[in-house]
Amino acid sequence: MYQYDLIDKEFLVDRSNEFRGQVARRLAGELTEDQFKPLRLMNGLYLQLHAYMLRIAVPYGSLNPTQMRRLAEIARDYDKGYGHFTTRQNIQFNWIKLRDAPDILDKLAEVDLHAIQTSGNCIRNTTSDPYAGATAEEIDDPRVWSEVIRQWSTLHPEFSFLPRKFKIAITASAKDRTAAKVHDIGLLLRQGRDGSHGFEVIVGGGQGRTPYVGPTIKEFLPTDRLLSYLEAILRVYNRHGRRDNIYKARIKILVAALGAEEFARQVEEEWEKIDAARADLPAGELGRIRAAFATTPFETLPVRSEAFETAKANDSAFARFVRNNVRAHKQPGYAIVEVSLKAQEQTPGDASAEQMEVVADLAERYGFNDVRVTHAQNLVLPHVKLDDLPTVFAALQASGLATPNIDLISDIIACPGLDYCALANARAIPIAQDIARQFADPDRAEEVGELKIKISGCINACGHHHVAHIGVLGVDKKGEEFYQLSLGGSGAEDASIGKILGPALPADRVASAVDQLVGAYLNVRADGERFLDTYRRVGLEPFKEAVYAQAD
Amino acid sequence: MKAITANRLIDGDVVFWKSGQWVERFGDAELFDSDEPIEAAVAVGKSQPTVVVDVYPIDLVESGDHWAPVSYRERIRALGPTNELTHGKQAEGGDVVEALRQASGAARSTGRVDLIRRK
Fold first, then answer.
1. From B7, B13, B108, residue closest to A476, measured CB to CB
2. How far is A75 from chain B (nearest CA, A)?
3. B-contacting residues of A 267-296, CB under 8 Å?
């Protein structure tokens, strides 16, 4: 994992002190709310329905146990004993007091964490593959490039006041676990015919009220030219992105208005003007960053673990966990373990202080001090020995963290919705709980197979409903909560935007409608087809009929 | 019937106007049945920028023997999140909390919509 140097550490202390002064001036009346709001947002502090909410950056979703324990401490001392992991691999605390915020930032800085650029019209935390450094699928470690972008984009003077927020995702595997194609920039690391590495650059994807799967504007950008090319894209956007209308300010609107080809041409033109020697990362600096990620001291182990095989044969609960939550590791004798934050009745993405500490302990004892956050609001222990898996499973199970449902129907993404969020029109969490309850039977969930349900409480789409196999969008119909279902979205490598199924449904109809959709799918699915595949083959009609026919 | 709500600056807590003070329980809120005094009280609230932010009136409906906010957004603010019934003001329990939970009025929070529009 990347280690902060002295400059990074001093900077965080300074920044925290600066915010302490700003809070004091606000409380003394020397700053108005209008003056103070952008300052607190630059430190990730929002005012929500019940309290302030602090969004803390988890750079490319990577945490060490010390950091995780500190988050648990903050949850216990300053919140109500829990935190909420988000669809951008960050963590939010829902019950923060303004007067405590400077102390919290100090405590975060002590463990190299902060809330800088988790809000505002700047380059946000880069999304990356939670399996980075662990999966055999990747052609390079995407954390290296994520860290390069983190250092380049942090307080970048030219790109701190963009027309709107800006989100970058990087994946180095063919299987996309970052939703790269619906980010402002998606970078897909490719290997050229000559063995060299380059990025396929996708620009102008996004969700919100105008969802787009981003077009590719460059097929193969040599990796050593990454920063100058990003600079060119950001410059074109900064110059031409719309500042007159917040709903049209994201880069996706500019790319769609110009057309991908013209946008690409303007970027190339800008790129040619940039002095590469100034803008691109020196090879020595890349080497320094790369070295920070190249040190996982794996043991040489046999592919087969007797302890693991015996447990799998004797314990059906463990076997089910392995089927659904354990993924292949690049290193023989190791596995990637998904820690589900989607137990029955749990709020999706919430973890208690005790659960955070359990995960921190397991990472320390069995997982090379490495924890990841996924955009699906779960956690990952990326490097666990197969020999240790039964022990790790037992510890997770004892803390309600071993629900065997990754990518299944009860592994639901949900934004905080109207239970917490000042922007929401409807609640998302109780809908997720209703649906999970409907599919509580793990045999049935496995029979249904991969099915990604994602719920947003408003059109801003923090819950990624546009790219869900079954999307649920909360709307306000004359003051009542209604839910619009959409089908056929995907945020993965086969990205697509879902299509609206029909008229919005009242809250108490959503779970039964999902049940009807699943019934329709099971009736017509062909061998090996996921829900998404069946939808793509048969279209919307059979599903529409299943949900709405009986109502007539 | 109306009440006036805001968020307290120092901790973000939901508060309600009561005769020149800001109180934490909806059950303690001052109820207004005419516009003029409410406008005057909102104006006083807005003149306290180091105490509260986002001051606005909310519409109420009868719920059993009590009054409750018409909009579910305001009921959630007055109660706490519906996924954690021991968090927020609802943790105390009591008649008013129960009345808020039972209330079924459905309307937008007009005060809040005005607030957003003004911004």
1. B108
2. 14
3. none
The answer to whether the beta carbons of residues A467 and A498 sit under 8 Å apart is yes
pLDDT value at residue B116: 58
Q: Which residues have C-beta within 8 Å of that of residue A24, sequence separation ≥ 6?
A: none
Q: 3-state DSSP: chain A helix, strand, coil percent, rounded to 5?
A: 45, 20, 40
pLDDT on residue B112: 66
Determine the structural domain holding residue A105 and report its residue range. Answer: 6-110
Q: Does A47 touch chain B (CB under 8 A)?
A: yes
- ipTM beyond cut 0.90: yes
Q: Within this chain, do residues A461 and A383 fall inside the same structural domain, yes or no?
A: no
CB pairs under 8 A between A and B: 80
Nearest Cα neighbor of A228 from A201, A251, A250, A204 is: A201
In a shared domain, residues A343 and A466 = no
Question: Is residue A191 domain-resident?
Answer: yes
Token reading at A258: 């110009």
- Which residues of chain A fall below pLDDT 50? none
State the nearest Cα–Cα gap between B78 and chain A, in angstroms: 9
Does residue B118 carry a pLDDT above 60? no
Asked if A49 lies within 8 A of B73 by C-beta distance, the reply is yes
pLDDT at site B64: 87
Same domain, A168 and A25: no
Decide if A119 is inside a domain.
no
Q: Which of A263, A292, A321 is a domain's end point?
A: A292
Position B36 pLDDT exceeds 50: yes
Report the pLDDT value the prediction gives residue B119, as an integer from 0 to 100.
47
Q: Which of A527, A442, A525 is nearest to A543 (CA)?
A: A525
Count: domains in chain A? 4
Q: Does residue A1 sit within a domain? A: no
pTM for this predicted structure: 0.96
Cβ-based contacts of A32 with chain B (< 8 Å): 49
pLDDT of the residue at A478:
84
Domain assignment present for residue A489? The answer is yes
Give the chain A residue nearest B104 (alpha carbons).
A480
Residue that is last in its domain, among A354, A375, A398 = A398
